[in-house]
Amino acid sequence: MKKIDGHLHLVRSVSGINGKGRMTPLGDGKAIWDNGTPLKLIPDGWGDDNFLAESALKVMDENGINKSVLLQGSLYAFQNFYTYQSVKKHPDRFIGAFSFDPFSADAMTIVKRHVEDLGFRTVKFEISEGGGLHGYHSPFRLDTDETIGRFFHYIADYPGFVVTVDYGDYTQLSYEPEAIVNLAKRYPMIDFVVCHLSFPNADHLNRLENALRQWEPLPNISTEISAIQDIEGETEFPFPRCQKDVALAKKILGPQRIFWGSDAPWSATFNSYHNLSSWLEATDIFTEDELEDVMYNNPDRIYFKPQNVKAVAEAVDPVTGE
């Protein structure tokens, strides 16, 4: 079976930022936040202070992963240009998203460089209070903030653009599944992807169902199921709590609006990448045809649109000439 990892991070250099301050790498895949919180960020053997494209390709090849979607997040710091370089070097294996701080003075200059010069057709909004923009900005909403509105007005000129959002869990001010609904209605030619299945909890499935029911009428909203093992605190393969979450998503959205991702490298420090990439095959949630959609066809349709692949393939950075 062909597979796409719909949520993978490359790390050229660790320099994360969130509400805990800045991150300092310590070697051996470990790091520490400014507030003193330590973490194991990169699995053993993947890299000491980085997770480069060559390492990612090795992991992918060992686990039968054909392609990956390279996303950004504040945990590692934005790796935008390295993502661009990696996609250009391995166009048959990678497609990438860029990220930006919409409240920075040069926000729209940054957006236009990545879209017009570098050919990106996906943006990742890591807005969660725990790990993203809400951790170091005043509260805002994606669907009503005038500053962020400038960005959406701009990408409306690019049908097929993908907006990927991590908004954290329901305890955080950043949790806004209804904002995705409002944006998807306003921009029907844009695809919206919600990360991590809206941060589910198998003991409170009504909350997840409420979000999914809101998205149900809108075909341009999909969700990926990366890192739900971390969110559910599961290490027992094949993750029975996660099975309940995904079964509910299938019931409401159908198998064509769900896809798999790992959220590695960090998620692969809690569960092996092999288990993360194979757990759905050990369940009966999806038929064989449906599993092919979830593992490959759906992320391929959303992210690897021919015009999106072509845009970055034809891009030449006017600054570096790459």
Automatic annotation (TrEMBL):
Keyword hit for Coiled coil: no
Q: Cite the Gene3D superfamilies for this sequence.
A: Metal-dependent hydrolases
Q: Name one GO molecular function term.
A: carboxy-lyase activity
Q: Does the keyword Acetylation apply?
A: no
Key words, A-Z = Lyase
One Pfam family per UniProt: Amidohydro_2
Domain called Amidohydrolase-related: residue spans: 4-304
In which domain of life is the source organism classified? Bacteria
What is the name of the protein in this document?
Amidohydrolase-related domain-containing protein
